[in-house]
From TrEMBL:
Spans annotated as Disordered: 1-26
Ranges of biased composition (kind: Basic and acidic residues): 8-23
Protein name: DNA alkylation repair protein
Superkingdom as given in the UniProt entry: Bacteria
Pfam families, alphabetized: DNA_alkylation
Extent of the signal sequence: none
Amino acid sequence: MQKKKQKPKSDSVRPTARKEKTAEPTANQFVKELTALKTKADLEKNSRFLHNGSKANLCLGVRMGKIFETAKKYKNMPLEEIAVLIKNPYYEIRMGAVSILDFLARDKKSDEKFKKRLFDLYIKNHKHINNWDLVDRSAGHVIGRFLFDKSREPLYKLARSKNPMERRTAIVSTSYFIMNKDPNETFRIAEILKDDRDETVQKAVGSWVREAGKKDKPRLLDFLNRHSATLPRITLRAAIERLDAKEKEFYLRSNKN
């Protein structure tokens, strides 16, 4: 009599493994994680740094290194969630948001279409990028890198804005051009901003023409020869910082401000 084949026991059968989709990080998760890192000492330090009691610049009290570390962990956050972060009233949260944008703009996996979305998000939400270091943390790659092989007209629109942080973005974005041996745009935008009344813009103009001058010193000296007499003192001092002592003395004496 033929024996019936026994069915394998249920625990001897390996079930087919299912790949579960990893949940995308959210703005709420980022805020919760960053808030857990706040300290009283960093709150006092950041509050003094911002010296702005408006509701648009509230402080959590998280040090920069921790913000950057957390932002790097959230690189896979959807752009819609980053947009939520960038509107947050807390300074450190917004710093986290622009840091994520910067990491994404630098990422070799980001294609042109995606970089355009980063660019658009930054420009659309610029009113929330309201401190000089928020601009400096992200404009070079999010704006400058994207525009490097395209029309630079958006920079001139920013340079003529009534918003000083947008004007600062115009000059700071050219850092990517300078890195790639193209200092021309820096000097052209400096011509527009050379008489700016906002100190954060004045300092940026001086600092960026100084850096552009490392690539093209004759162009820097030409800029100084034409404008040193009327440049804001802050701009001039930043621009001549790397010149020799005699050159510094010459331009400082020529300045009427």
